[in-house]
Amino acid sequence: MSTIHEQVTTQPHYALPYRVLSQYLATKERTVEVHATPQEVQQLVNQGYLVRERLFTDDGLAQLRAALDELEARERQGKNVAGRGFGGLFLRHLPDKHPLFCDMVKFEPTLSIARAVLGPLVQIRGFSARISYPNEPSQEVQWHIHQQVISDPLPPFFVHPHGLDCLIYLDELNDANGPLCFLPASHWNTRFHTPTEDFEDKPGQVLVRAPAGSCVIIHSNLWHRALPTTPQGTKRRLIIITYTPTWMKQAPYGVKPENGLTQALLQGGDEEMRELLGVGGYT
Q: What is the mean pLDDT of residues 212-220?
């Protein structure tokens, strides 16, 4: 079976050279082969999102589904999947639990775009999945952002929390399954805020419908929500890879396995691997 890295559709490329101004890093000259056009990257910066329809081939999609279904069968028992604000089953630390996701730590179609907007020193802050079910109540997700640390007024030296969430949909994103909804360019509006459990339509919102195997890349502070999976729909499986600068804390969600698969990657890994797994890339 071919690797998941080979089971992606062809995307445009351009080279982006960096020099890291550090006295301590072993590798300072780094060139990123970005899997996008400069115009697409600029749209991501300005509007906060980029849609990659059918990023994965049929075989790649089948591999991802099989791996996630295996983890779902192992972890769903006894868990409540109904929740008014954040419904569905959440699975955390996927690379520690299955070799396929372990192999995606250096997944260039998303990693290279993260480096194009965040710089060469990035880590995987979270690698999770959300599964919503057509026959369970409250499978929607409220309006929210992922880095809720902004204060009012902004301090003079406030550091804006930039991150990138790559949403990989393993099932069709349609009205029955619950499309993704977001407010374009809202990641720049630090004063926008909504109350808890807000599911109401907003002026200027965009609904994303896409075929299975698609990836929607958003800024972590783009305001977004997921509409409910309905009884007319199917199970909706979503993989979420989050990238942030190396100096940010790891996500607090879930319990990391003590002897997870990434331990072997760290022990035998290079400088890049250690940075991606949250060890190094800062002083």
A: 98
